[in-house]
Amino acid sequence: xxxxxxxxxxxxxxxxxxxFQSRRxxxxxxxxxxKGLPIIGNVADMPSEKEWLTFxxxxxxxxxxxxxxxxxxxxxxxxxxxxxxxxDKKGAIYSNRPVLEMGGELVGxxxxxxxxxxxxxxxxxxxxxxxxxxxQPIQNLYPLVxxxxxxxxxxxxAKQEDLLAHLRKLAGGIILRSTYGYxxxxxxxxxVNLIEHANDNFNAATVPGxxxxxxFPVLKKLPEWFPGAGFLKTAREWAKDTAKMVEVPxxxxxxxxxxxxxxxxxxxxxxxxxxxxxxxxIRDLKFTASxxxxxxxxxxxxxxxxxxxxxxxxxxxxxxxxxEIDAVVGNTRLPxxxxxxxLPYVNAIVTEVLRWNSVAPTGVPHTAIEDGYVSGYFIPKxxxxxxxxxxxxxxxxxxxxxxxxxxxxxxxxxxxxPQPDPRKVCFGYGRRICPGMYLAEASxxxxxxxxxxxxxxxxxxxxxxxxxxxxxxxxxIISYPKPFKCMIKPRSEKAVALIAEEHxx
Length: 505
Prior knowledge:
It comes from Gymnopilus dilepis. This protein is of the alpha+beta class.
């Protein structure tokens, strides 16, 4: 899903609403920005890819908070971390989501955490996340994270050219086991395939301009046989896949519980007193569980993939981290979470990965629940609000040489404070801040520290020539480094032996 999805939201507004907005006496208090055209506003100005770069350029011209109009609907773009902090303090009125007709309403993702409107159900979902994935509860999942990371090491040693697929299996293994008590299979896994298929449908459903219903919501009331309404049949089929994503893993856990073989998980814990739960309680439990995979897997995989790219491009950083691990851990065992307080440079790499590679460059858009003011500018009700997180993480005044991968910037020197923590930026703001951030960071740390302990990550060599990859990112709400080649090999025979050790939860 790209930022242009938001255009579809604005395009569904009536002409009467557009004219009303243009005549509001307080419209001139909106933040500055590029001048648009009558009726359509700034639609023609909107970038089709890497939108964060265009927004950063606009920010340099008009300031830390700017605005554009999309078919009459204001979009507020925040380029400044200090202004985002102001939004954070007013999170109660800037925590709604735009309506996505095809992907959200018709395909069924409107009930997942990422799109559900701000309100009681949203707060219930967040309580579930906090109960199981909060700062303290997440420590109970450390053994699982370490177990799945060991499995990742084995897969990578066996077939290092499938790095990205192995990272996806790593993220899926952690989330499916912690959420449903399901252990992913090596090779093709039916649950991973089922969930990723449903997520692929969602991505297709939110391609800008792909479905007229996003522009004209009234079309969803047409019968399927009506000419041009074929999208309704597509939506019906995709909605079935969404339902399977929600129901199939949930039913697996219930079957395991009935058989007395269920392992502790988010769902099994939530169903311990099932007889006291209402139908709405069950529904919310199911959709919270399904939100855990969709909301956490892609971002974590993007960060882990970026780590391998950073090591290829910065061998000196890799060597320094490995020296720290060798000094603290030695070579007779793999590092674990107990070692983390004694590995400041490795922790700095974790933080720098999150800064250097923005996994969600513009985040997911928010909408204003009511009229308000931010940094002295008027923000009308229903405005789309977008935080350019990429720009905040690449601000030269905050992070000198922002395109350089430099973990040292996150380590405090005597008499000098470290740079602001990127984790306060990259996980969003307000009531919509990522509730899975503790699991994401724990997974990233485990992948990084164990990989550094046993692998050398180097440039691939073709025809005797080392290939230097380039750090470029894909467009979209979730952004990945573009595919790159590298060579991953064990550091020693002892490392091979450590990878091969059997490990059970």
